[in-house]
Amino acid sequence: MTATDSAPTVRDAVASHRFAMRIGGEAVALGRRQLVSVDPTTERQLAEFPEATPADVDHAVQAAGAAASEWGRQPWTSRAAALHELATAIDGNAEELALLDTLDGGMPIRTARKDVADSARALRYFAGLGGGIEGRSLPWSGEGPQLRTMREPYGIVGKIVPFNHPLKFAVVKVAAPLIAGNSVILKPSEFTSLSALRLGELAAGCLPAGVLNVLAGRGEVGAAMVAHPGIPRLAFTGSVATGQAVLRAAAENIKHVTVELGGKNPMIVFGDVDPRTAAQAAVANMDLRRTPGQACWSTSRVFVHASIRKPFLDALVEAVAEVRVGDPTDPDVDMGPLAYEGHHRRVTELVAAGRAEGATLLCGGDRPAHLPTGYFLQPTVFTDVEHGMRIATQEIFGPVISVLTWRDTEEVLRQANDTTYGLTASVWSADAAQADEAARRLEAGMVWVNSAATRPLGMPFGGYKRSGLGKEGSFEDVVSYTREKSIISTALPAVQRHD
């Protein structure tokens, strides 16, 4: 099935598929409460899938534990081969997986296809890192014990992933713990579960039973994973408030936790930059042509030097107008709907707050006139934004850009850093020394200089402050799914024989 087929036919094919959870390699579907996937483009039911319970978390822990010992003892090359096989299976089902994310989450089909390709590529990248997990020999002066360390997998890892890149995040975030020798329990967002459930089907033919378990469910399932004493290592991606709750609950069992949370990321544009170039970068940095601003790294606070404010705003309105909004199954569409109704409501409420607090709505702010149905919102630009407004301080996670004006470098750096977040930042200047100085002073885990939002494979990703703990997407990520054991070996004295 391809996106060139009629949309009703594609949607019917998805609706007829029997989606199941995977626990211990077995499909779990019958006799379960069902959750409903709502197509955010049509606002109609797309498919049903089984809802997990806390009891299923116990079952998954048992299955993962039974598989973990053998999986962790395999040579890393064997684990790498299994990950390569899964990558090949993803490639072989690429169009189907892309369509699931397009229909289930509103992602434009072009973006969904890229996400699928990126997922397979990431699996192959992480597969190649397995041989780098190694211990150390430590020096010892004189005669004494041998000192060495080794790294061992935790055994069972829990992964809770968000709704905005359903397949990509499911795949990329399980790759590191798998190559490190762990079994994984994956919980996708209840709003965009379909591609992760399909991933579980594909993995059942590539990985040993129980190595990857996929549970679909609401918050109680994630809470059960966080609280379960049999899951010593956990990673969560989502909101700050939920991340804080995860950390509090995980503290009960002293779990090793990675959290990748939100951002209210600044983009600083100096006066020596071509306004049109900066405006195009502002659109790219917002991921408007990939997701409707549903990206934690989006630079939604754009600080523009007063000397180029007017031409920048003119160019920004033009650039935003070029973003084609519509049915995401259309390959010519740049931006689809927001992922689900509750999120659409929250974003539109923040747009209303921007108006009420006195910001100037430069463009957008409403539903596109040609789209009466679906969770759509026009790309939106506010100007005359003050530093303390809600649209300048709260993560919106939608297609909303707030433009602030500045004149003094010290002041703009202070305002850029004056947030509880610290995920990403972007600096644009023709003066390399000036740009580098700003990048070093920005309190963010990743800073782009004269480039739009990209993250090459192997580049560590993670935030400062309330934007998270730990790094993902790199070799450091793999190592974080192992524990270091120190071994002190002393030879026994020779036994004297008496004949």
Characterization of this structure:
This protein is an alpha/beta fold and 499 residues long. The chain folds into two domains: 7-261 and 463-485, Aldehyde Dehydrogenase, Chain A, domain 1; 266-449, Aldehyde Dehydrogenase, Chain A, domain 2. It contains 16 helices and 20 strands. The chain has a seven-stranded mixed β-sheet with strand order 14-15-16-13-12-17-18, with helices on both faces. Helix 7 (194-204) links the parallel strand 8 (183-187) and strand 9. Helix 3 (76-92) packs antiparallel against helix 5 and helix 4 packs across helix 5 (109-127). It is globular. The termini are far apart. The model has no long low-confidence stretch (mean pLDDT 95).
In brief:
With 499 residues, the chain is an alpha/beta fold. It has 16 helices and 20 strands. The chain folds into two domains: 7-261 and 463-485, Aldehyde Dehydrogenase, Chain A, domain 1; 266-449, Aldehyde Dehydrogenase, Chain A, domain 2.
